[in-house]
Amino acid sequence: MRFGAQTDEVTSLLRIVNLVRTGEASTRPEIGRLTGLGRGVVTQRVEAAIEMGFLKDGEYGPSSGGRAPRTLEFDAGQAYIVTCALGALHIRVGLATLDGEILSHAHRAWDIVRGPAETLDAAIALVEELLAQVDDRPIWAVAVGVPGPVDYESGALVAPPIMPGWNGFNVRRRFEQRFDAPVWVDNDSNILALAERVHRRADTVDLIYCKVGSGIGAGLLSRGHLHRGANGAAGDIGHVRVRDSEVLCRCGKVGCLEAEAGGWAMVRDADQAIADGATGALAARRQNGEPITPEVLTLAAIDGDALAISLVQRSARLVGESVAALVNMFNPGVIVIGGAMAGAGEIYLAEVRQRVYELSLPLATRDLAIVSSLKDESEPLRGAAELAIEELFEVSLPRWFASGRPTIEGVKAA
């Protein structure tokens, strides 16, 4: 069954599909109570939704005295969402269902400085390897996370400090050409904030996800929704100015938080301290010719290396000062610390908490929780799937629903 213009029938069908998809209703009588539609109309609409492939019959529910009602389920397995998370030194891809379950995923070490063409070819090849191992279902959406500023409306990167050659590159178009499906591209901190929302699910989540890896960024959730700002740059705290700092940042500016507290800055400072005579396990590693990375630094701190602990704690104090400014302005209920530095656990968190509580207003911190992120490599893929689901079913669904599946043109239509 297909429909033309947006009619009352289509509108009620839309609502019924979303009631079942979100779990607000699971039987025909529940749909009737929530929508006010008569039993015959509900039956007609549900049959249409089943014919279109959005809903399917489930098990019988509990009886309230009469015949047990047949439950309804959203058919989340009718199509795939392709998820892709690009990092400074890795590529992760996955296939997800329409309710966000990650069915399969793959990972490859990769240096993002190899440029957009080579990097996206490698990412798409990984996706194609996954697709070759599963049954043939349509791809309804692609969501991509990148470690740099993104113009969300166009899908193009804008002067990303750690991604030379990517400025102005339209990531969206490359995936659209290959998969012929709607594509959304966002900053990796925003993607990770959405992954946290999956675990909390309350519509009232006010959350800051602060990623401290090689670089530093933040994703902001306000009442459960991402706050990107006018151009998609909200939360880029890695390039706020640190007081009295004159250190040159990779972005070309001086005194950025990332240049003082990011993972790459900590590796730089560790190398300098070792050259100046610092000793310990971290120094021994460097002297043996082994590389120091942000992950190595956090592990060394946990193992008690004095140099690593001092670097980790200094990073946490500086990050805490910048986050405190966000706390006073944004008043979140939760701050999640993620990225490589989250691996240092309480060594890092304790310093962040101390600075936030010292520098923020009492009311803003009264119910504030500051926690580490889940250390799950699938989290960026889960967040990417959440982005695609939100765009498909909460933003653009009325534009493509009558066609039975999303298209690039249908999603973009006004």
What do these coordinates show?
With 414 residues, the protein is of the alpha/beta class. The chain folds into three domains: 8-74, Winged helix-like DNA-binding domain superfamily/Winged helix DNA-binding domain (Arc Repressor Mutant, subunit A), CATH 1.10.10.10; 80-194 and 378-412, 2-Layer Sandwich (Nucleotidyltransferase, domain 5), CATH 3.30.420.40; 201-372, 2-Layer Sandwich (Nucleotidyltransferase, domain 5). The chain is 43% helix and 18% strand. It has helices at residues 8-21, 28-35, 39-52, 116-131, 171-179, 188-200, 257-261, 263-275, 281-287, 294-302, 306-330, 346-359, 362-365, 379-395, 397-400, 408-412; strands spanning 55-60, 70-74, 80-86, 90-96, 102-109, 139-146, 150-151, 156-157, 183-187, 207-212, 216-222, 225-226, 334-338, 369-372. The chain has a five-stranded mixed β-sheet with strand order 5-4-3-6-9, with helices on both faces. Strands 12-11-10-13-14 form a five-stranded mixed β-sheet, with helices on both faces. α8 runs antiparallel to α11 (306-330) and α10 (294-302) crosses α11 (306-330). The two termini are 23 Å apart. InterPro entries: ATPase_NBD (IPR043129), ROK (IPR000600), ROK_cs (IPR049874), WH-like_DNA-bd_sf (IPR036388), WH_DNA-bd_sf (IPR036390). It comes from Microbacterium mangrovi. This is Transcriptional regulator. Belongs to the ROK (NagC/XylR) family. It holds the Pfam family ROK.
